[in-house]
């Protein structure tokens, strides 16, 4: 035992001695990619010096290669991070991870994670075009802004990316166009001013890409060229030029145009097919975008939300891309992100860091319909699924109608047959018939089991959550759950029911619109340390027509991925119009001028229920960029505000240094509170419902407003809607601004009226309520949502 103990002590001493030296040299290759977050080093100031130092670290760590983890031939060093934090990414074995953690120059190691991608009438729907629209011309259509799109790449030949008539590239631009497979420097122009691709993390996880295929057989183009379509679609949504005669299979004909049609596009391909992208590559893309000089980053990339809620910023699975985004915002870059597509479960919202502008998805007032004509003359409104030829249409005209649940194989589940699982259906009953199938938006259905056509009908949980889906090559359409009873009643009441799947058509002027998309992730944030509002804002994300790839000039796509670039484009326009505004000022302007009303002048509803939605669904509301150009006042924020927020979440100075490499000491007297973070929204959290009757139970908020108007003015506070069971008050209730740029502060207090009256919505053991307040000078209305939670939101189930 004494010998073993001495041996262990000798090894430990050796590691400690070697560690002190090898902060000047060593580390290796291995089985998994990690992001190594390094301390700030005064002697390694540029990328080349850092690269040399990190290479020495990797070389030294090769001594810790275990026999069962030999050098696998992968490059030891993948990316060097210089602008969004200090560090690098590399493949490490478990032994090498332990070694790295022992080095005093290593602050943290983050395991590489997979991220998934999350679509022209929408510019008109959000109010950018028309006689009374001014933001486009006053911002020169965003010409002075550069949008960095971190995504799957771009298909540069599309009309949306023409540089005809564009002026010179902004002089501050430092980027370049990286050549690769089927992509040359000539593919860049005065519109696409830069293009780079980041793949080393992906290759470490999936094998090297050779001749367009990785070792797992996945097809990928080793360049900035887009092989998935997602990045091209997002880039053209944010900043596509005017492309006339756009349509998809004859639908949505018109001029396709992005939100900031003269803004420049910088492409950073870091998402690959079919598995998404690795954090190490995405962080490298952030780092390069900041170095190149972008003004906006459009980040339609997913972030996992597990059953316990959002991951802690420092525990469990560290989020290096969140750290990268903070440092981008710190340098003045507006970062727009997708809120995620796992809705509508409460507590599902993703990408919740306070420096993000997190976007929810809505419908617009245009639909691509493919309706069903029943044999009794009734028409059921459906959503486009199939552009059939005239011959094919005759095959599904007045065809016999059959419910899948009535076609089950003897002895097998009628429920499975109702969802048209091929193995549960009696194929002999299907020929020549239109099959009616339940659809709960899972992957139960993969191919036509032999019917002439198929009608998918949403289950009640998904209500009217419909979007274009042309993923099958046979006649089909989709109906919302409102059509379930009529079509089943018709089948039950008629011995020979028939139906016709009508040709697809585009319909404008849909009411009500917008609706929050059924797939759009929802709040509240299930996080024990504190509460803040996410999403921040909502924008169109259903059936967006934008540029496609390969043989598809245009494509329909839906998702918060499509809502995000709308807001990225708005950010570019506002940056061009107000170049001195901070990212937080741009976000505040969008939030405080948003609307919570649809085109029928009622509260925006949820697509899946048609019931009124809340700030947990749409944030501050549906973005109105025209009004955001002149918001009057903004809730501005900078680096210290975000770090005070982290202090309010009880993180230590050591932990906060992982976010901001310059370090920060949290105040102790008084301690920081997240309620005082200068958000344009308010979340009052009350833990125990029984405590609401206690005297002095209240939540207060300290906020500061900045005048961005052209002159001074007097603003008065108004409680537009009191949350049920609560009272809102202001001190002071009047703010006088002497000149542009002047600041004034106030305290808002939310007080319960007593335990007898709780907020109106109950989810599990949590009560949720909402209201709104505003400041107005008679010309501007600076509106903010106020939400209330009673109970432990951290225990709210999102499943």
From TrEMBL:
GO terms for biological process: proteolysis. InterPro entries: Peptidase_S8/S53_dom, Peptidase_S8/S53_dom_sf, Peptidase_S8_His-AS, Peptidase_S8_Ser-AS, Peptidase_S8_subtilisin-rel, Peptidases_S8_3, S8pro/Inhibitor_I9, S8pro/Inhibitor_I9_sf. PROSITE patterns: SUBTILASE, SUBTILASE_HIS, SUBTILASE_SER. Pfam families: fn3_6, Inhibitor_I9, Peptidase_S8. The keyword Hydrolase applies. The active site is at residues 151, 230, 561. Residues 676-788 form the Subtilisin-like protease fibronectin type-III domain. Residues 143-599 form the Peptidase S8/S53 domain. Residues 33-115 form the Inhibitor I9 domain. Residues 1-26 form the signal peptide. Keywords: Hydrolase, Protease, Serine protease, Signal. GO terms for molecular function: serine-type endopeptidase activity. Belongs to the peptidase S8 family. This is Subtilisin-like protease.
């Amino acid at each position: 035992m004494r010998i073993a103990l001495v041996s262990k002590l000798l090894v430990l001493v050796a590691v400690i001695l070697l560690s002190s030296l090898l902060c000047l040299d060593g580390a290796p290759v291995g089985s998994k990619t990690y992001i190594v977050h390094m301390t700030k080093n005064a002697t390694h100031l540029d990328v080349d010096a850092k690269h040399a130092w990190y290479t020495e670290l990797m070389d030294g760590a090769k001594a810790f290669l275990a026999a069962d983890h030999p050098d696998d031939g992968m490059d030891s060093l993948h990316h060097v991070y210089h602008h969004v934090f200090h560090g690098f990414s590399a493949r490490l074995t478990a032994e090498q991870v332990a070694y790295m953690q022992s080095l005093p120059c290593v602050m943290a190691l983050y395991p590489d994670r997979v991220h998934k991608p999350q679509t022209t009438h929408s510019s008109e729907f959000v109010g950018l075009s028309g006689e009374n629209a001014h933001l486009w011309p006053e911002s020169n259509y965003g010409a002075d802004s550069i949008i960095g799109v971190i995504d799957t790449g771009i298909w540069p030949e599309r009309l949306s990316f023409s540089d005809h008539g564009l002026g010179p590239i902004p002089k501050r631009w430092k980027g370049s166009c990286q050549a690769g497979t089927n992509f040359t420097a000539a593919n860049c122009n005065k519109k696409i001013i830069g293009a780079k691709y980041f793949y080393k993390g992906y290759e470490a996880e999936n094998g090297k890409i050779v001749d367009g295929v990785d070792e797992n057989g996945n097809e990928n183009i080793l360049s900035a060229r887009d092989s998935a379509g997602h990045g091209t679609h997002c880039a053209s949504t944010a900043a596509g030029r005017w492309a006339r005669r756009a349509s998809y299979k004859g639908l949505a004909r018109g001029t396709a145009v992005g939100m900031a049609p003269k803004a420049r596009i910088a492409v950073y391909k870091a998402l690959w097919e079919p598995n998404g992208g690795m954090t190490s590559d995405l962080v490298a893309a952030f780092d390069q975008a900041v170095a190149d000089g972008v003004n906006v980053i459009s980040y339609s990339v997913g972030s996992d939300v597990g059953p316990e809620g959002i991951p802690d910023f420092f525990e469990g699975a560290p989020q290096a891309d969140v750290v990268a985004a903070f440092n981008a915002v710190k340098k003045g870059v507006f970062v727009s992100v997708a809120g995620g597509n796992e809705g509508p479960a409460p507590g599902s919202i993703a990408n919740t860091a306070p420096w993000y502008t997190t976007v929810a998805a809505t419908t617009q007032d245009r639909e691509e319909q493919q309706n069903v004509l029943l044999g009794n003359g009734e028409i059921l409104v459906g959503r486009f699924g199939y552009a059939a030829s005239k011959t094919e249409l005759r095959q599904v005209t007045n065809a016999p109608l059959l419910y899948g649940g009535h076609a089950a194989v003897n002895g097998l589940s009628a429920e499975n047959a109702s969802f048209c699982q091929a193995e549960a259906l009696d194929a002999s009953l299907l020929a020549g018939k239109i099959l009616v199938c339940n659809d709960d938006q899972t992957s139960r259905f993969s191919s036509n089991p032999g019917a002439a056509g198929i009608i998918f009908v949403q289950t009640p949980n998904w209500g009217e959550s419909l979007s274009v889906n042309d993923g099958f090559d046979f006649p089909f359409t989709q109906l919302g759950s409102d059509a379930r009873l009529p079509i089943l009643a018709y089948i039950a009441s008629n011995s020979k029911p028939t139906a016709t799947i009508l040709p697809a058509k585009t319909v404008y002027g849909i009411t009500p619109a917008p609706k929050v998309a059924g797939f759009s992730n929802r709040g509240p944030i299930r996080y024990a340390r504190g509460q803040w509002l996410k999403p921040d804002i909502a924008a169109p994300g259903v059936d967006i027509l934008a540029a496609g790839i390969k043989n598809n000039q245009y494509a329909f796509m839906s998702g918060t991925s499509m809502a995000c670039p709308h807001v990225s484009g708005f950010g570019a326009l506002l940056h061009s119009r107000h170049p001195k505004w901070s990212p937080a000022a741009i976000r505040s302007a969008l939030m405080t001028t948003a609307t919570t009303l649809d085109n029928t002048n009622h509260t925006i509803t949820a697509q899946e229920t048609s019931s009124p939605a809340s700030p947990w669904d749409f944030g501050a509301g549906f973005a109105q960029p025209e009004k955001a150009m002149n918001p009057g006042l903004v809730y501005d924020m900078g680096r210290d505000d975000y770090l005070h927020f982290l202090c309010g979440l009880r993180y230590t100075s050591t932990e906060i240094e992982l976010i901001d490499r310059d370090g920060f000491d949290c105040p102790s007297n008084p301690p920081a509170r997240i309620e005082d973070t200068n958000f344009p929204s308010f979340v009052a959290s009350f833990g125990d419902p029984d405590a609401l009757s206690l005297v002095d139970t209240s939540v207060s908020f300290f906020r500061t407003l900045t005048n961005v108007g052209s002159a001074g003015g007097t603003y008065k506070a108004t409680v537009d809607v009191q949350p049920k069971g609560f009272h809102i008050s202001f001190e002071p209730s009047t703010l006088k601004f002497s000149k542009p740029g002047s600041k004034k502060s106030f305290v808002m207090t939310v007080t319960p009226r007593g335990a007898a009256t709780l907020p109106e919505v109950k989810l599990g053991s949590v009560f949720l309520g909402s209201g709104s307040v505003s400041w107005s000078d008679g010309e501007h209305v600076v509106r903010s949502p106020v939400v209330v939670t009673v109970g432990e939101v951290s225990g709210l189930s999102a499943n």
